[in-house]
Amino acid sequence: MRTLAVVNLKGGVGKTVSAANIAHILAVYHHKKVLLVDGDKQGSASRYFGVYGEQDGTAALLLDDTLDAEGVERVIYRTGCKGLDIITSNMELYAADRALFDRDDMDTARVLFGALDLVRNDYDFCIIDNGPAADTVTLNVLTAADDVLIPIRPDEFSFSGLLDLVEQVDAVRESVNPGLTLRGAFFTHWQNREPFKQARQSLEDSGICPVFQTAISYNPKVPESTLEEMPLCAFAPRSWAAIQYKKLTAEYLALTDLSKGKEG
Asked: pTM of the full predicted structure?
């Protein structure tokens, strides 16, 4: 199982939509077995697939000291999309983060890794949607991940925190997870205008991190899909955003050794 974390410490950049749609595309179009982990206390990825509620989810995994494979499977839910399962989240994740932060009797950075490792052989990919916070949950997400993708809006406010995030990824790689790879950033809310092109060029020239060729255009179908609780390729398969997410997923797969299998 290869684990991909979609991370940005800022809100409103498209983390949840990106994680959810990449997971859906991997399952439906690349015929992979995919586990989506909702790592945000707001539970937006869970809402996207219509499974948000009071059930146990990511918080329960982080707080269970005696977790086994059956315990992990107990908090995995079906999304209604073939090949795609989800571990949900809700506001209990906030309490779980505080509880982990206060513990000094265990390696609190590797709890999520240990939980996911118990179902590693059941899935091809695990996609983690991370909340906009530099907290213990985020540390767990980065420790559990093989790859990181950073969605970013082409504006100064998003750029300002990018270096801090890249430094955090580097720190986790050096101290906890030597296999962690920052695959790169990709633009969301994109418009084919000169200031946006200049923003891309500026990021590429900075050398802060790799930049994906695929950008996700601003499209009203994106927020509409969240209201309908349907992935873009099911809700509006001909929309530019849906097509671009398919291209983005293919671009990511091309960077890994797991792109085998015919898309269809």
From this structure: 0.93
